[in-house]
């Protein structure tokens, strides 16, 4: 039985990113739907059906969106690899000088840049020029299917929080309590996404919470107007 290829750090991070963003979108999208419908109607079944329909649509949309997006990224990398292979076969010296000059422009001495370029080009000319020209490492493509599955699982998982809150909490507090629970959950997913991307933790978390609150306020106001 062939040994399974282990994912590298970048590939694992991309799958985690898809899962975190899927959960975040699930929380945000479904909270907006159920709070908007709850503002228009007190019928629990109506709220549940609206939320459930949103979960089904969102799950398929997120999964297909991730699949298409990651597949497009992988296709672009394959195309760049093919272009670099052609360039090396037809004008090796230009590619060599590009690598060497890039290090010189970064402040490396001519002697050291020449030595480094000679060494790297001798070991892996294609991988070196792809990395230096296009900024990615060969054969580290993210799994489009894996990203789609991560989103397909995480979106409905994130959706459970607003669905359970709006369904199980007492009628007199369910909307504000759902809003509070969603804000806390968005703070967690916002922080996690910022940690993965290296963004400012405070700003990214706050931005995620504010966008969620804004979404819930808008849908609540629209639901209130329709329900009158």
UniProtKB/TrEMBL annotation:
Primary location group: membrane
The keyword Cell membrane appears for this protein: no
InterPro entries per UniProt: Ccc1_fam
Record-level GO cellular component terms: endomembrane system
Coiled coil residues, start to end: none
Regions crossing the membrane: 20-39, 45-64, 142-169, 175-194, 206-226
Gene Ontology MF, one: manganese ion transmembrane transporter activity
Pfam families: VIT1 (PF01988)
Subcellular location: Endomembrane system
BP GO terms, sorted: intracellular manganese ion homeostasis
Membrane topology: Multi-pass membrane protein
Keywords: Membrane, Transmembrane, Transmembrane helix
Protein name: VIT family protein
